[in-house]
């Protein structure tokens, strides 16, 4: 099966501006787009640059745009495309391009770390582990599936707008949800305080793109709404 991949190319060290390059790949219907990119790098152009690691939708490192939609090419199977169809491959939006399909993820992780993405405990540690019930675990189970691929952040219209570029983004909010609703965490109120501002949880305008593109099918928008409700409930109690 022949695929025609139109790939974004840009090396800031030598290119004046970005351009697109077409490659034909003879692929098996059960290959993934990531396999096709590897074939290009191995057999046609070793200078083509992109990130990858596990190749199975676990690490999240190969996030990019496929036909304009943020996705993981390791999850896109060749048989789902038409033979001869031109497939547009571009880097994730929002982020600075380092080279070709590789983007600078530092701003993404700065915002991620700003919400303190770890358990906050104040009580003395128990003799053994901190226990929780199955029901307590289920409250944040979906959020634990996040692999930090940044597809949601790159797709978010709020992150893409210059006037709201400081918005913390859906990935950081999903991770904050994971700890806010963890029965073992003792930093609930201080974590909410980190999110209770216009560039935090209130920056979301409920456009749903984050949920649509999430490769792990996390209900991102619903979790953001639950975080807002927690802030509202605390505010209501203090009045």
TrEMBL record:
This is succinate dehydrogenase. Keywords: 2Fe-2S, 3Fe-4S, 4Fe-4S, Iron, Iron-sulfur, Metal-binding, Oxidoreductase, Tricarboxylic acid cycle. GO terms for molecular function: 2 iron, 2 sulfur cluster binding; 3 iron, 4 sulfur cluster binding; 4 iron, 4 sulfur cluster binding; electron transfer activity; metal ion binding; succinate dehydrogenase (quinone) activity. PROSITE patterns: 4FE4S_FER_1, 4FE4S_FER_2. It is an enzyme of class 1 (oxidoreductase). One of its GO terms (biological process) is tricarboxylic acid cycle. It comes from Candidatus Methanoperedens nitratireducens. PANTHER family: SUCCINATE DEHYDROGENASE [UBIQUINONE] IRON-SULFUR SUBUNIT, MITOCHONDRIAL (PTHR11921:SF29), SUCCINATE DEHYDROGENASE IRON-SULFUR PROTEIN (PTHR11921). Gene3D superfamilies: 3.10.20.30, Alpha-helical ferredoxin (1.10.1060.10). Pfam families: Fer2_3 (PF13085), Fer4_8 (PF13183). Residues 136-167 form the 4Fe-4S ferredoxin-type domain. Its cofactor is [2Fe-2S] cluster; [4Fe-4S] cluster; [3Fe-4S] cluster. Belongs to the succinate dehydrogenase/fumarate reductase iron-sulfur protein family. It comes from the Archaea. Its EC number is 1.3.5.1.
């Amino acid at each position: 099966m022949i695929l025609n991949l139109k790939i974004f190319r840009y090396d800031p060290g030598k290119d004046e501006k970005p351009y697109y390059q077409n490659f034909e790949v003879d692929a098996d219907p059960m290959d993934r787009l990531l396999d096709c990119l590897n074939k290009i790098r191995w057999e046609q152009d070793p200078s083509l640059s992109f990130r990858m690691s596990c190749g199975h939708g676990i690490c999240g490192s190969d996030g990019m745009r496929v036909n304009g939609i943020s996705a993981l090419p390791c999850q896109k199977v060749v048989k789902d495309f038409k033979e001869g169809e031109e497939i547009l491959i571009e880097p994730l939006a929002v982020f600075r391009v380092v080279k070709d399909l590789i983007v600078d993820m530092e701003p993404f992780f700065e915002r991620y770390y700003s919400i303190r993405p770890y358990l906050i405990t104040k009580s003395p540690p128990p003799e053994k582990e901190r226990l929780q019930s199955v029901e307590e675990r289920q409250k944040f189970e979906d959020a634990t599936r996040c692999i930090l691929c940044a597809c949601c952040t790159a797709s978010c219209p709020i992150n893409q707008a210059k006037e709201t570029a400081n918005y913390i983004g859906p990935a950081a909010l999903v991770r904050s949800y994971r700890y806010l609703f963890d029965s073992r965490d003792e930093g609930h109120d201080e974590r909410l305080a980190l999110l209770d501002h216009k560039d935090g949880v209130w920056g979301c305008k409920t456009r749903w793109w984050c949920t649509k593109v999430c490769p792990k099918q996390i209900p991102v928008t619903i979790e953001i709404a639950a975080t807002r409700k927690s802030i509202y409930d605390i505010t209501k109690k203090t009045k």
